[in-house]
Amino acid sequence: MRVLLIEDDTVLGAAVRDQIKADGHSVDWVARLDDARDTLSAGVFDLILLDLMLPDGRGVPFLKNLRTSGAVTPVIILTALDQISDRIDGLNAGADDYIVKPFDLDELSARIGSVARRYSGNPNPIVTIGPLDIDLAARSIHRDGKAVALTAREWALFEAFVQRPGQLLSKAQLEERLYSFDDTVDSNAIEVHVSRLRKKLGRDIIETERGLGYRLGHP
Amino acid sequence: MNAPRSLQLRLALALGLAVTVLWLAAASFTAEKLRHEMDGLFDAALEDAAQRILPLAVHSTREHRRDEEFREDKRPERRGGPARAERIARLHKDDRFFTWVVRDRKGETVLRSANAEKEAFPPFTGEGFRQTATHRLYYDAAGRDGLTIAVAEPLSHRTSMAREMLLSLGLPLLIVIPLSLAAIFFAVRTSLRPVRRLRADLSQRGARNLAALSDQGLPSELEPIVQGMNQLLDRLRAAFEAERSFAANAAHELRTPVAGAIAQAQRLRAETKDASAAERAKEIETTLKRLNLLSEKLMQLARAEGARLRTDTPADMRPILKLIVDDFARIGAAPRLHLEMPDEPVLSDLERDAFGILCRNLIENALKHGRTGEAVDITLSPTGVLTVANACPPVADEDLARLTTRFARATDKKDGSGLGLAIVRTIAERGGGELAFASPIPGRDEGFEVRFTLPRSDAGSE
């Protein structure tokens, strides 16, 4: 997934960024709402993590504007404002979840996964594809009952397919999901990850539409 | 004697007393003045009587002397004349209150009025007024004949006249004074109506009502008081707001760096391959979380003590309870939490955040002190009673009483702040709800139950 993190505290922001990266997602991190607007207009994001008190304004009006302009990107609020009324304001403004600081990074990962699953249309974290039993929440895959270990990038890529079953994903789309603006991406990175997934999960797990992209197959 | 505390009574008493004293003083002054005037009049009448009688007496005495001479002439026809004194007395029938004597040069009585008693008339010492213990007298002398007259008026006559006068002056006062007192009381009562209205306005408002007082139709003396009070209320409101925003800001300012430190410690733990470094990172994280918990509780306590805990518009409390329960469910408490809520809204004008803090603390408390793995029952009744019950050995009565004291812990578990129930109690006291603890839970032989009755908007709004 590609995540936009809007947080002005450098210590917390860095830790959150590292956590999301470790989960295999790509992160763009900005500290101001102005920069957030620019970044949103330049790329497609799967999720926004929004702090509510930023140097150049409040998060809630920003979120309201975002929703008014028709954006459907899931938004999780990360904030120090812990009052029920703040939370109700945030959720009413169009947030999908509301996390009060301080929080556990693992909890953050879990909530990101849960929001993403809800947006993909299937909130159930347990998915079965042929011989594969996949637990998206626990990030575990069993093939014919045996656990398969995936790296974070492999997970992120596989999750992208699982959340869009049957949908064709271009190489550019996949790169955007996996890498942020700042990452340097090898030209064949996606091909490398796809071939590793096929090796671990079965040849037919990902089908190639030559020149167009990839889609989830039926192993 | 202490002055009465009611301004109305005090005014009425002071005015009534002043008016009564003034009335009495005026009446006494008038009576004294009139008495003086009357004395003058009576004296004049006395003098007048003397001056009328004396010539007659002189004349009569001369006649008498001539008669005597005539009798020596043996003129029998002149002998049948009436007695002198009788004659003169008849002339002065109207001087009923006067008696008089006419005396010759030697002090011998030559003439006297019918009812004149000799003792009432001291000897002649000069012309003018005299006064004895019983009479007022006027003395006059008739030049060459050496006759003197003393006219006396009994003092009792004057006294009874004065008494009658005093009575006719005083009797109306017996009616006028009570009537004026009633009028004063009525006037004071009417004039103080704005004060009573102000008092009623003040006594009817709840502790949470900091709205300005109406200064419509107030007398000018009360206006500055009400204005001063409104300024005070303004300042109080501003202070409450400031405290509230301070608490919120302080929470924010503290939370973010703590969150950063905790997150970094967690990253460190995730990234390091060194087991002892991971252990230390874990310790840092635990300490930071304790610090955070404590600062959060202090902030909640500050909020509970500083903020307005009632709102103007009642809200449904169910979504708030649901939010809090969901929060606990998310951090893994879901299997233990049993929530029961009615289908209809449960309205209260308790501040949402305050109710949130209260629920959070009660559930946290129940999870922490309840027996591990056993259910925590959270029930919100349609009538607005929140009960949170957990399984645990019965708590001793003296411990129950101590529970809401700050930094008191029921057990020696280290992970409690000891502030949770103190916060709950503060919210209940200041917000106007009822809080009760029971252990064991009624109907069972163990467990701990907290009952919180939400302040009802209908009862609390007046």
Key features of this structure:
heterodimer, A: five-stranded parallel beta sheet, four-stranded antiparallel beta sheet, 8 helices, 42% helix, globular, B: 462 residues, alpha+beta, five-stranded antiparallel beta sheet, 14% strand, transferase (chain B), two-component regulatory system (chain B), histidine kinase (chain B), EC 2.7.13.3 (chain B), 2CSK_N (chain B)
Would you give an account of this structure?
The complex is a heterodimer of chains A (219) and B (462). Chain A has 219 residues and is α/β, with parallel strands linked by helices. Helix content of chain A is 42%, strand content 23%. Chain A is built from 8 helices and 13 strands. A 5-stranded parallel sheet of chain A has the order 2-1-3-6-7, with helices on both faces. A 4-stranded antiparallel sheet of chain A has the order 8-9-10-11, with no helix packed on it. In chain A, helix 6 (152-163) packs across helix 8. Chain A is globular. Chain A starts with a strand and ends with a strand. Chain B is of the alpha+beta class and 462 residues long. Helix content of chain B is 56%, strand content 14%. Chain B is built from 11 helices and 12 strands. Chain B has helices spanning 7-72, 84-91, 155-191, 193-204, 223-271, 275-306, 318-333, 352-369, 397-402, 420-431, 457-460; strands spanning 99-103, 109-112, 128-131, 135-142, 147-154, 310-316, 337-340, 347-350, 376-380, 385-390, 434-438, 448-453. Chain B has a 5-stranded antiparallel sheet. In chain B, strands 7-9-10-12-11 form a 5-stranded mixed sheet, with helices on one face. A two-stranded antiparallel sheet of chain B has the order 6-8. In chain B, strand 3 (128-131) and strand 4 (135-142) form a beta hairpin. In chain B, helix 1 packs antiparallel against helix 3 and helix 5 (223-271) runs antiparallel to helix 6. The longest helix of chain B has 66 residues, at 7-72. Chain B is rod-shaped, with a radius of gyration of 52 Å. The relative contact order of chain B is 0.06. The A-B interface holds A 9-16, 18-19, 22, 53, 80-85, 87-88, 100-107, 111 and B 248, 251-264, 266-267, 270-271, 288-289, 292, 296, 319-320, 323-324, 330-331, 352-353, 355-356. Chain A: It comes from Rhodopseudomonas julia. Chain A: Residues 2-116 form the Response regulatory domain. Chain A: The modification 4-aspartylphosphate is found at residue 51. Chain A: Residues 124-218 form the OmpR/PhoB-type domain. Chain A: Residues 124-218 bind DNA. Chain B: It is a multi-pass membrane protein.
